[in-house]
Automatic annotation (TrEMBL):
PANTHER family, per the entry: HISTIDINE BIOSYNTHESIS TRIFUNCTIONAL PROTEIN (PTHR21256:SF2), HISTIDINOL DEHYDROGENASE HDH (PTHR21256)
HAMAP family hit by this protein: HisD
Enzyme type, top EC level: oxidoreductase
Binding site for substrate: 232, 254, 257, 323, 356, 410, 415
Function text: Catalyzes the sequential NAD-dependent oxidations of L-histidinol to L-histidinaldehyde and then to L-histidine.
Gene Ontology annotations of biological process type: L-histidine biosynthetic process
Binding site for NAD(+): 125, 186, 209
Name this polypeptide is given: Histidinol dehydrogenase
């Protein structure tokens, strides 16, 4: 793993270099056609695409409850126990995110306030085959249920041998209300516009391939979406008190996801930097997903050596990593130095995979440096805010002139007359 010794300004310039996100016009055009076809032909289009793309003839999209129950009942006990533990921790964490709104009656004759309303129906996209992650189903559906969403529906590509039992069991554990066998851009279109079998939703969440991501972009506005996910990052801040073997393992835990993942270590110890680099090289040789992880480490990863602890955090805030580990003594004392990060892991025993599975905070996080302005998925993503106001006649009279003045400045005479009609002046 390459080690970089440069001044702070040069390092900042390096980490600010973004991965260029090129738009494949062929994909854009293909997705547009798919969405239009689903809008016009509904279930017929979905069946055709299921046969064309997945090689599966689907007669009934909605999976029967008996199949889901059987997957749960027959699941390996250790897997079931792990999923139930994850559910407990995810639920206990996200319960604390619930908002209650407010009422303001401080001004005489004026009542103002805000209330939170859950979305009615949310669609969860789950990739098929080896890319199916039961833990992500829990991270997606549980906050929605805690928020009070009335119905959570899940779509996933049909499989010749049936849908992954762990996926179905996770759906049952998370309280998913219905599972539909449909995948790809056509599934996103079905969720956004509805078909004879699949209900229209208010928001679509979940990862997918380039066709799914492109479809989510195209239906945004018709429905809400969670995010357009890009390459992930793991950033580690460490000094010479950290264990280089553990740091290398943590870097590779993310590098094995995707060739575009950025594994980054920032340290003030040249000795640690070399030891971690050596450990990464040796561990890559025995990692099952070595091809993916090697590409990530070689093309996107690096170790930066700086002088001061403050510089370590300054540089990492520029990275704005999806995952950030603080491997320093007494790590909580540095929380105030963290400005941009999706999720933070404090100390030796808070390795990043802890957050992927059982700790409780959500693992659906802002990627590609978007932690500068975005937040992890949470209960607040499944509610909308509605404000309300009530004035007495006396209270409105006190502010009427200001309202009519501003309305006429903006050339909106009807606005002004709507206020004046409550008092002495009325326009027929």
């Amino acid at each position: 793993m390459k080690i970089i010794n440069e001044d702070l300004a040069s390092l900042k310039k390096l980490v600010q270099t973004k991965t260029q996100q090129l738009t494949d016009q062929n994909v854009v055009t293909a997705v547009q056609r798919i969405i239009t076809n689903v809008i016009e032909n509904g279930d017929t289009a979905l069946k055709d695409y299921g046969q064309q793309f997945d090689g599966v003839a689907v007669d009934q999209f909605k999976l029967d409850q008996a199949t889901i129950d059987a997957a749960y009942d027959n699941l390996d006990p250790d897997v079931k126990a792990a999923l139930l533990l994850a559910k407990r921790n995810i639920t206990s964490f996200h319960e604390k995110e619930k908002a209650t709104g407010f009422v303001d009656a401080e001004q005489p004759g004026v009542l103002r306030g805000q209330k939170f309303l859950p979305l009615n129906r949310v669609g969860l996209y789950v990739p098929g085959g080896t890319a199916a992650y039961p833990s992500t189903i829990l991270m997606s559906a549980l906050p929605a249920k805690i928020a009070g969403v009335n119905e959570v529906v899940m779509v996933t590509p049909p499989q010749t041998d049936g849908i992954n039992p762990a996926v179905l069991a996770a759906a049952k554990i998370a309280g998913v209300d219905a599972v539909y066998q449909v995948g790809g851009a056509q599934a996103i279109a079905a969720l956004a516009y509805g078909t004879e079998s699949i209900p229209q939703v208010d928001k679509i969440i979940g990862p997918g391939n380039v066709f799914v991501a492109t479809a989510k972009k195209q239906v945004f506005g018709q429905v809400a979406i969670d995010m357009v996910a890009g390459p992930s990052e793991i950033g580690i801040i460490a000094d010479d008190s950290a264990n280089p073997r553990e740091l290398a393992a943590d870097l590779l835990s993310q590098a094995e996801h995707d060739k575009l993942v950025r594994p980054i270590l920032i340290t003030n110890s040249a000795k640690l930097a070399q030891a971690v680099s050596d450990n990464v090289d040796s561990q890559l040789k025995v990692l099952p997903r070595t091809e993916i992880a090697t590409a990530s480490v070689t093309n996107k990863g690096f170790i930066a050596v700086v002088d001061q602890v403050e510089d370590m955090f300054d540089l990492m805030n520029t990275v704005a990593p999806e995952h950030l580990e603080i491997q320093l003594p007494n790590p909580t004392q540095y929380l105030n130095l963290i400005k941009n990060a999706g999720s933070v892991f404090l100390g030796r025993y808070a390795s990043e995979p802890l957050g992927d599975y059982v700790a409780g905070p959500n693992h659906i996080l802002p990627t590609s440096g978007t932690a500068r302005f975005s937040s992890p998925l949470g209960v607040y993503d499944f509610v909308k805010r509605t404000s309300f106001v009530q004035y007495t006649k006396t209270a409105l009279q006190k502010e009427a002139q200001a309202i009519t003045t501003l309305a006429r400045v903006e050339g909106l005479e009807g606005h002004a007359r709507a206020i004046e009609s409550r008092f002495d002046t009325y326009y027929d």
